[in-house]
Amino acid sequence: MKKLFGTEASGCRIMPFVLLGGGAFLLFALLTLPARLALGWLAPAQTRLEGISGTLWHGRAENLQWQEARLGRLEWRLHPTALLGARLRADLTLNRADGFAQATVTAGRQGRLRVTDLTASLPLNALSAIPSMGGWNGTLDLKFADLRLERGWPIQAAGRLDAVALSGWVGGWVGGSMGGSAGRPLRLGSYRVDFAPAADSTRAAVPAGTLIDTGGPLQVTGSVQLRADRSYIIEGLVTPRPEASSEIVQALQFLGPADAQGRRPFSLEGSF
Fold this sequence. Notes:
Structural class: alpha+beta
Helix content: 10-25%
Shape: elongated
């Protein structure tokens, strides 16, 4: 009996070292897990990564493709401490010859993402594979302190979006099919949407922003709402400035008669 008890006591003393060794092995395996293998499990269905190198914790892909849009070179660095709270958090950096994006992204449950410290400047033609972006040119500049997504759709937003030097076909939102001279897209100027932090953090609140122009042939004031059913509405008032081309002035007539200040109401709705 003495020998049996001695064996049990020895086993009890050894067990913590066995667990520690097993944990160290598991940690080493995770730290050195090839990114190519790990991302095969983790990458969303609509995302494709090419030229993957590095590890799960710090790696890169020579090209990130979302749907049909080729976005650029992606680098990531995971935060291991976030795993203690059953979350996945990473610093992401996207680079391309004509733009960049960087942010910290935290993945939660049920397809929820929280994006913080987002700064980006990307050309619209990088998103030309998205049907609503086809035929438009310009630059999107984003600066968001906090952006929360559920299944890829914003449910809370605090930050600013600038659409700079836009050009495109205006028929989609004025009811005509007007382009510039010789069939070229019209130059429409630059615009800004400011999303203020929600006063109420409940799920009933929807992201809403104020819309203004920041220069160009059109004076615009309005609002943007992103609804929970993945639809949006953009509405406001638009007035042509003296430098507006005859094509723009003619296109705006599809919106109906102007008020005494020369303003016409517009509304654009859609869904993703």
